[in-house]
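cache lookup: miss for this entity combination. No prior model stored, computing from scratch. Input as submitted by user K.M.:
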Amino acid sequence: MRGTDTLDALTAAIEHGRRDEAVALMRAAVAAGEPPRKMLDALAAGMADVGRRFSNEQAFIPEVLTAARAMKRSMAVLEPVLVDAGIRPEFTAVIGTVQGDLHDIGKNLVAMMWKGSNYAVVDLGTNVSPETFIEAAGDYGADVIGLSSLMTTTLPAMQRTVRALRCAGLKARIIVGGAPVTSSFARRIGADGYAKDAAAVVRETRRLMPAG
Amino acid sequence: MAGPSTHPLIETMTQRVLLCDGGMGTQLIARGLSPGESAERWNLDRPDDVRAIHRAYRAAGCDLLTTNTFQGTTTALAQHGAARDVDAINRAAASLAREVADGAWVLGDVGPFGGFLEPLGETSAQELRDIFHRQIAALIEGGADAIVVETMSDHAESRIAIQTARQIADLPVLATFAFQPAGSGIYRTMMGVSVPDAITAAIEAGAAAVGANCGTTLGLDDYRRLAGQLLEAAGPTPVMLQPNAGSPEMVDGTLIHPAGAEEMADLARDLAAMGLRIIGGCCGTTPDHLRAMGQAIAARA
């Protein structure tokens, strides 16, 4: 298989969650000495493709989770190559579900999307207090902070968290999302970005922080 | 022992449309439940409040009272460090509803266990059966007349809950799913399960009535459209629907469920005319909504 064919096949295998095939293709690409950056892009493209279908209601949580699993295993093959090539994660992202909210599915999907785009992701879990967000964002030098909420009842906590992060003077961009969150709510509470779903979050991060 | 086909609940629903109750979580919040606090703990810690909510729904004319056990599985309670109280919580919840039922039926409420089944997640079918068995057995011990398996997204999970309930006791099991718009006027669960697939799975597992509750970004007209699709999928099996009071909106920093009692009454009238057999409410609905809905249903009969 030619190099570009291998990488296209890798993208398709990730998109459709064919884990073993993706790992085999990743190994083949590494063995063939494909440029690390291109291999990384092929992984991210697979996640972006399933993400796009997710946004269009053509794919659902199971498809995204299986794609993410294939991405994760392939990334494990690629990681040593990236280290050797001196390619470091592009951004550091800190993510969590806001205080009072114990839902983690949406937050996990976003974390996977970011990982698939070569961001270092610090996952703070669910029911995260504003103080914990501030501390972690400082400790890890976050470039971007993701706040998730599933329940309408925890939207006020999201607002409090954004305010606390601003007061702490952190430079990181704040992206909010989750079922009850709308773009107008995001604007009103002073977030930098809004992602309607896990697929949109990578596009939104790119918009806020153009690469290079 | 009377089989579920002759259970009085099922017999009654063939004769008239039954009114299920409405939102529990939003009522508990109105009484001071904080975000992140376990609503189910209130069955032990604030029994008077839970009882008062059931009583208000009964006074509004509801025929079915749903226990405060939506997140009452061991796994869901574990998120609040309350897993060891699973039996006591579910038993207490059923008896609280029972105490004020005054002729209404008590539905033991079973919600999603909070994870994913294998191979997507790490819970096996047998583990899930054990999880549901624990909750459902306690609900029945506490006095539940029937079980409602609700807000499900994964039809495999729903199927296991229904089968487990049917194995424990010969009681009717009602089963509802949470849908969201999936383009071109159709609906799927967040796991991508279509209306026909969800409904067929529930019927095959032995549900006595099937339908939908809650859901994401559904307006009242969505519920009308969804009802048609549920009826088509269910065939002769009775259909139930528990809509939210519209899709929630933030207005001046406060969360509003936009649909008032009159709009919900109009919806209930339409749903009854379409042939639904159990109509109730979900998030944002109150005893006032349910009273108006019950009157609208009765007025057309």
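stored under new cache key. Residues 101 and 272 of chain B are 24 Å apart (CA to CA).
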